[in-house]
Amino acid sequence: MKQLTATAKVILGMLAMRPRSGYEIKSFVDRSTRFFWAASYGQIYPELRRLSQAGLIEGTDSPTGGRQRTIYELTRAGWHELETWHSEPGEHFDYRDEAMLKLFFAGAVAPKRAAEISRERAEQAAEVADALRAVEAGAPGDDQASYAVLRFGIDLNQFIADWFERQALAFDEGIPLAKLPAPEDPEEQEKG
Question: Residue 126 to residues 136, 161, 174: CA-CA distances in angstroms?
Fold first, then answer.
């Protein structure tokens, strides 16, 4: 195979965990990787066909309740492709955040909206952190690597929420950003 697509990486990884149907892959994506690596039905099903044609996965018909269903699993070639991809360094991280883009242009477009944009983004990040904390509460905790990714998501989104909230206060109070106090270190607060 020339190069794995983003969706192929998700599918092969999910199938390494256990055989699944396309619906099961999408459901698991919605509860796990969507916070950092999303995939839609419109991406998953065509990619399942492509991976099957490439001999990396194979499907077995497994109807349930009168509904047609195919359960996919990795082939030996699929395992090889997944292991090859997994052994390579990760690609460059591209951070895209529309609120950050709006904030960047706020000075030219609508300076008075800067605080509002910041508060909206802080609220969104706090909601994601809370959603991830709910996932954490129900997570079995037996996979340390997956748990580390979950904690990263919680910590990152909490940082983003806090950062945007501080920016909103700075915009409201007209404080130059260079004069903003640094956030308090929770460990230092405990010592005090």
Answer: 15, 5, 24
- Given a cut of 90, whether residue 165 has pLDDT beyond it is yes
39: exposed, middle or buried (Cβ count in 10 Å: 0-12, 13-18, 19+): buried
Confidence tier at 65 by pLDDT (50, 70, 90)? confident
Q: Which of 164, 162, 161, 138 is nearest to 150 (CA)?
A: 138
Contact 59, 52 (CB under 8 A): yes
Give every CB contact of residue 41 below 8 A, 6+ residues apart in sequence.
Answer: 22, 26
Contact 10, 37 (CB under 8 A): yes
* Domain 6-87 in CATH 1.10.10.10: yes
The CA-atom distances, in angstroms, between 4 and each of 11, 54, 154 are: 10, 11, 28
What are 3-55's pLDDT values in tens digits? 889 899 999 999 999 999 999 999 988 888 888 888 888 999 999 999 999 99
Do the beta carbons of residue 80 and residue 62 sit within 8 Å? Answer: no
Q: Is the pTM of this model over 0.85?
A: no
E strand or H helix at 94: none
Q: Residue 149, SS3? A: helix
Burial of 5 (0-12, 13-18, 19+ CB in 10 A): middle
Residue 189 pLDDT: 53
